[in-house]
Design brief:
This protein has 307 residues and is an alpha/beta fold. It has one domain. It is 33% helix and 12% strand. The strands form two sheets. The protein has a four-stranded mixed sheet, sandwiched between helices. A two-stranded parallel ribbon has the order 1-3. The radius of gyration is 21 Å and the shape is globular. The termini are far apart.
Length: 307
């Protein structure tokens, strides 16, 4: 008989309120990570590396600046470097009263920007169709690339790539000239030198559907879905999360402890485990640690200090 998934709590639970009884904490954390995280097919969870640049269009200047600054601040808290004024956006936020129309036009006119053709770089054709057609207050699309963690070199082939000297044609080419070239420094079944980095995110905001949330709530929602690979269909009603803001605007004023622990775990993870389950476990462990610090704070203890 197939096992049923644990039922979601009737009331959204704050991370610090989870009581450790048996495996309840571990189960809730693993369920949260499993629910919200959506890596590209066959790949590990991707994150940004280095600099991010947030661009916002179709909003009044003060609102656009606030959104860009808030997302940049969240990113900086995770160890990323916000771009200087005038930088070329790699996180583009577009506000519109015709979200589906904008999404359809962008994908139609610049499809290669949404599906670059490299293995593991996006969520696939069906997900792109969902991005265009599914009505949501905020919709997003991200591109990621597998890279060599040591050198930063791309580890997947794109159309037209050629590593050989004679790349313009002729008889000197072999199939190897058109494959990415990486040096394996340590062959291991448990460890990998290849990680997945986000390189582009497009976020489309339907202005008619976000009127009931504050600009801080909107900014933090955008930060959550642009700085991590979040499942658009995630059911997080059982958790106090900014991801619930459009169903329950009064539930979370900003990023919650669940959200911050998830993002913190993602950006603190070493990501050198070959197995995807092991990579997710790093994030689970980080949320465990966050829970412990929050509970210690409630009890008036110094975080990390044991009796």
């Amino acid at each position: 008989m197939a096992q049923q998934a644990p039922a979601q709590p009737d009331v959204a639970v704050e991370l610090e309120d989870v009581v450790v009884t048996g495996r309840s904490l571990d189960t809730m954390i693993r369920n949260f990570v499993g629910e919200v995280a959506e890596p590209n097919r066959g790949r590990g969870l991707a994150r940004w590396d280095g600099e991010i640049c947030v661009g916002v269009s179709n909003l009044q200047a003060d609102a656009a600046q606030y959104l860009a600054d808030r997302v940049s601040t969240v990113a900086e808290d995770l160890g990323l470097q916000p771009g200087a004024p005038g930088c070329a956006p790699n996180i583009l936020v577009i506000a519109t009263d015709d979200a589906e129309g904008i999404a359809r036009t962008l994908v139609s006119e610049r499809r290669r920007a949404f599906r670059m053709g490299g293995a593991g770089m996006d969520r696939g054709g069906s997900a792109l169709e969902d991005f265009v057609e599914t009505d949501r207050p905020v919709r997003w699309w991200q591109m990621a690339v597998p890279v060599d963690a040591e050198t930063g070199a791309r580890a997947t082939r794109l159309a037209g790539d050629c590593n050989g000297i004679k790349c313009g044609g002729g008889g000197g080419q072999t199939v190897l000239a058109f494959a990415p070239s990486t040096n394996v420094f340590a062959a291991s079944r448990l460890r990998t030198q290849f990680v997945d980095n986000l390189i582009r995110a497009v976020v489309i905001v339907d202005v008619d559907q976000v009127r009931d949330v504050s600009i801080l709530q909107l900014a933090d929602y955008i930060a959550m879905v642009s700085l991590a690979q979040i499942d658009p269909d995630a059911d997080t009603r059982g958790y106090a999360s900014i991801l619930n803001v459009f169903n329950d605007p009064d539930g979370s004023a900003s990023l919650t402890n669940w959200d911050q622990a998830f993002l913190g775990g993602l950006y603190a993870a070493e990501r050198n485990a070959a197995a995807q389950i092991a990579r997710r476990s790093e994030i689970v462990d980080a949320i465990h640690d966050a829970h412990g610090r929050l509970r210690e704070g409630e009890n008036g203890e110094e975080p990390g200090v044991e009796d």
